[in-house]
């Protein structure tokens, strides 16, 4: 695809060069700085000064001023010109001879230094000598198959090397020690220092003019077969794809990143970056095309023209204007070598951003996102395309010159709602990705506010996620937008995030009450309960507690029961105040008391008594309504019994008085048990409830945490209740037998045998008797084991005592107590394991002198 990379500008008109002498033709040209040298077919050299001028409109022109001309006197065409600016010398090839002339006055050097026998020559632009005051010249000699290397100084020449080639060379280019040669039938790379050669590809010089041009360090451009411009390195490989020229190319030049080629009718421009043809300029009768230090000059027989490259930035902008994004980016990357680093980075970022907007306008969102990221786009440039998304307080002003041609999204999509929706989806995705990256630094309020507006407008599920996480949404803009789109629950979250919990709760309560409509959460009431549960503002909790409890007291009480544990432990809200508040809500009051007593295990009599009374009243209320024990009654009875059994804090007599006269016999029995009136309790269980299993369980739970004697006493008491005089009920007899047989270990067999009726057979009590005998034997054996262990331990102690006695201990009036340092007055002392002795009363003192080793006083006393 075409791009305007160069403009053809005339440099030297025909009249300036030859006037009316039509026979004069241009044979060769050389340019060094502003100096332009032209060699003609009549053996003249012309010297011009080129002055570049730029008009106010940016148009470039060249004014050529003729300095002088010189006739060489050979009546032969001047074949080639090469400038050696370091030597102020011009190398002139005419009649197979290279002459050194002064660049200023075009006079030959006084020494007459020259190189004879040259068909063509070139300079080594990557010299190997290292001498700044000489140039290295490579010639194709008139000798067959011979290449010669010379060192040319200011006034002399010196041959360095002569190299022979396998075929007659036609064209040559040099880089260091490497020669790139066009032979008769092929191109080769030859290292003239080592003699090693590398074949490149075949080529027929009879059919086509060869082209060999050095384009960079160790890289050459060659005219290949099939109209291809081939790139080759000194290693014989190609690192770039070839460019497609016409079959009759006669010259080539390099102006990075372009390769320029000349044929009979056109000048063509190809990119080295993507090998595509970018420009074609009509140009007839051209026969010279060369580049000089970045300046491309083309000539016909009669005139000289300069290909002026358009600034790369303008070329890139033209490509972007044509929406040729890939080409623009390739060209921009290639321009890096020609532009200072800092300037390039600024330019390249802007190009990436422009390319991103082009892709965005074409709905190529993945490509656009990558370009925006790479170009470090100020995300507000993108947000500003969307009407009303930027906060009203934003001070953002779009980049100038603008990065795109669109006023807003409406213009970009031309009102197409489907496209607009896609663009909004993309912005949502992009903002969500960049909001937590460095791209958002400094713009977080703008980004999050825009994202909130997009989510609200699209009814997107991520709206709530945004508001419950860290965000920088501006309250004023966001609140108005959420209200506009009837997102009242989200608005409440916004208020909460900004510390306005009262405003949030007011909104949510209105939603639950139906004053405003928002179906975001069907469980909003539960959400409010949770919110108040963890709300640290007690005033708000009390303010909305009545509303919460009126809606559902069993759920609402959670604002008190599920508060954070540390807050409850500090009693930030007095439990008594809560109970007073809950007096109007019996179910909530019970649940709160259960929370205090059963969960928090608060050891206060009033809470335990209160809960027991509430359980009792509820049971009695239900029993007064229905005679059958419904599920609710059963559950309440179980709760009441559990509390009465496990708690020791409630007022037992008070509860017992309330139970008197009711049919709550089991509860009465539990209460009598708490009063240690076990006989009454067991009498109720056995004679009134006739629940023998419950009677046995009573003995078990009432003896938990007590010694075995207490447990045995309870079981004997139960047995005596079963066998009380006058109790002839067969069921009581069987219960007594079962009690003995099932709990034999709990009874003293001797006492049992004294109280059981003589009429009972041994067979009836055989399980009990067997268990009793087994228990007796077990007890005896365990006692014997314990006795044996005690005797063994005593023996060990005796052995230790004997060991401690050892040798006799001598006590005299010269011995002193190691504690008080006084002599012994009586033969009573304490001896420590280390051999030291002390008075018995001194040893009793815990604060021993440091002279006494602090071993435990396990030694014996001797008198």
Automatic annotation (TrEMBL):
Q: Which InterPro entries match?
A: Clathrin_H-chain/VPS_repeat (IPR000547), CNH_dom (IPR001180), Vam6/VPS39/TRAP1 (IPR032914), VPS39/TGF_beta_rcpt-assoc_1 (IPR019452), VPS39/TGFA1_Znf (IPR019453)
- Mention one GO biological process in which this protein takes part, according to its record: autophagy
One Gene Ontology cellular component term attached to this UniProt record is: membrane
Q: Has UniProt tagged this entry with the keyword Protein transport?
A: yes
Q: Which residues form the CNH domain?
A: 23-296
Q: Where found, per UniProt?
A: Cytoplasm
Q: What PANTHER family does the database record attribute to this sequence? A: CNH DOMAIN CONTAINING, TRANSFORMING GROWTH FACTOR-BETA RECEPTOR-ASSOCIATED PROTEIN 1
Q: What is this protein called?
A: Transforming growth factor beta receptor associated protein 1
């Amino acid at each position: 695809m075409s791009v305007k990379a160069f403009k053809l500008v005339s440099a030297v008109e025909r009249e300036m060069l030859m006037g009316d002498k039509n026979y004069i033709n241009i044979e060769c040209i050389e340019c060094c700085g502003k100096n332009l040298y032209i060699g003609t077919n009549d053996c003249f050299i012309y010297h011009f000064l080129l002055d570049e001028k730029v008009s106010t409109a940016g148009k470039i022109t060249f004014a050529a001023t003729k300095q002088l001309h010189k006739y060489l006197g050979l009546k032969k065409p001047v074949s080639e010109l090469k400038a050696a600016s370091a030597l102020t010398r011009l190398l002139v090839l005419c009649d197979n001879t290279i002459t050194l002339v002064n660049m200023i006055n075009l006079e030959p050097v006084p020494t007459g230094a020259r190189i004879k026998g040259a068909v063509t020559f070139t300079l080594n632009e990557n010299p190997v000598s290292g001498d700044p005051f000489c140039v290295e010249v490579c010639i194709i000699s008139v000798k067959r198959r011979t290449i010669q290397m010379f060192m040319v100084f200011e006034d002399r020449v010196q041959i360095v090397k002569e190299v022979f080639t396998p075929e007659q060379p036609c064209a040559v280019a040099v880089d260091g020690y490497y020669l790139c040669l066009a032979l008769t039938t092929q191109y080769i790379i030859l290292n003239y220092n080592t003699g090693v050669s590398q074949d490149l590809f075949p080529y027929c010089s009879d059919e086509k003019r060869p082209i060999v041009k050095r384009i960079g360090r160790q890289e050459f451009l060659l005219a290949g077969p099939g109209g291809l411009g081939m790139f080759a390195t000194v290693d014989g490989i190609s690192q770039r794809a070839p460019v497609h020229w016409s079959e009759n190319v006669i010259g080539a030049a390099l102006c990075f990143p372009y390769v320029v080629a000349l044929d009979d009718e056109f000048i063509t421009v190809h990119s080295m970056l993507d090998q595509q043809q970018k420009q074609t300029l009509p140009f007839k009768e051209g026969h010279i095309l060369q580049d000089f230090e970045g300046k491309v000059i083309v000539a016909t027989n009669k005139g000289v023209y300069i290909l002026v490259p358009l600034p790369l930035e303008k070329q890139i902008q033209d490509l972007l204007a044509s929406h040729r994004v890939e080409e623009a980016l390739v060209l921009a990357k290639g321009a890096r070598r020609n532009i200072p680093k800092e300037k390039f980075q600024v330019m390249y970022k802007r190009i990436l951003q422009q390319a991103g907007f082009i892709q965005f306008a074409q709905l190529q969102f993945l490509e656009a996102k990558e370009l925006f990221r790479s170009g470090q786009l100020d995300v507000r440039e993108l947000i500003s395309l969307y009407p009303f998304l930027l906060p009203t307080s934003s001070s953002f002003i779009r980049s100038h010159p603008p990065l795109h041609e669109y006023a807003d999204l409406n213009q970009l999509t031309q009102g197409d709602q489907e496209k607009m929706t896609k663009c909004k989806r993309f912005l949502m995705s992009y903002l969500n990705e960049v909001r937590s990256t460095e791209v958002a630094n400094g713009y977080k309020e703008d980004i999050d506010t825009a994202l909130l507006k997009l989510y609200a407008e699209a009814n997107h599920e991520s709206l709530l996620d945004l508001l419950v996480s860290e965000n920088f949404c501006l309250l004023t803009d966001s609140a108005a937008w959420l209200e506009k789109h009837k997102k009242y629950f989200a608005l409440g979250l916004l208020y909460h995030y900004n510390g306005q919990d009262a405003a949030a709760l007011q909104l949510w309560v209105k939603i639950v009450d139906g004053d405003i409509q928002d179906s975001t959460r069907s469980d909003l009431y539960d959400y409010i309960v949770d919110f108040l549960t963890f709300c640290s503002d007690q005033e708000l909790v009390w303010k909305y507690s009545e509303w919460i409890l009126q809606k559902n007291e069993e759920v609402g009480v959670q604002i008190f029961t599920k508060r954070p544990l540390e807050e409850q432990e500090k009693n930030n809200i007095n439990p008594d105040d809560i109970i007073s508040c809950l007096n109007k809500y019996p179910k909530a009051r019970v649940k709160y008391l259960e929370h205090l007593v059963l969960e928090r295990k608060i050891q206060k009599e009033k809470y335990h008594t209160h809960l027991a009374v509430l359980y009792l009243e509820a049971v009695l209320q239900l029993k007064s309504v229905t005679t059958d024990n419904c599920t609710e009654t059963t559950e309440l009875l179980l709760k009441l019994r559990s509390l009465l059994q496990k708690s020791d804090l409630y007022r037992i007599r008070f509860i017992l008085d309330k139970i008197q006269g009711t049919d709550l016999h089991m509860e009465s029995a539990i209460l009598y048990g708490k009063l240690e009136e076990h006989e009454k309790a067991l009498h109720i269980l056995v004679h009134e409830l006739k629940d023998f299993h419950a009677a046995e369980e009573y003995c078990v739970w009432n003896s938990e945490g007590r010694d075995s004697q207490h447990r045995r006493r309870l079981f004997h008491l139960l047995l005596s209740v079963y066998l009380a005089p006058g109790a002839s009920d067969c069921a009581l007899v069987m219960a007594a037998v079962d009690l003995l047989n099932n709990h034999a270990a709990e009874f003293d067999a001797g006492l049992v045998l004294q109280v059981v009726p003589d009429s009972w057979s041994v067979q009836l009590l055989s399980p009990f008797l067997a268990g009793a005998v087994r228990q007796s034997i077990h007890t005896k054996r365990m006692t014997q084991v314990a006795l044996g262990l005690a005797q063994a331990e005593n023996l060990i102690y005796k052995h230790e005592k004997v060991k401690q006695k050892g040798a006799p201990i001598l006590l005299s009036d010269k011995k002193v107590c190691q504690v008080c340092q006084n002599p012994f007055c009586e033969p009573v002392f304490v001896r420590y394991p280390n051999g030291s002795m002390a008075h018995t009363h001194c040893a009793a003192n815990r604060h021993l002198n440091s002279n006494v080793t602090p071993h435990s006083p396990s030694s014996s006393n001797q008198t």
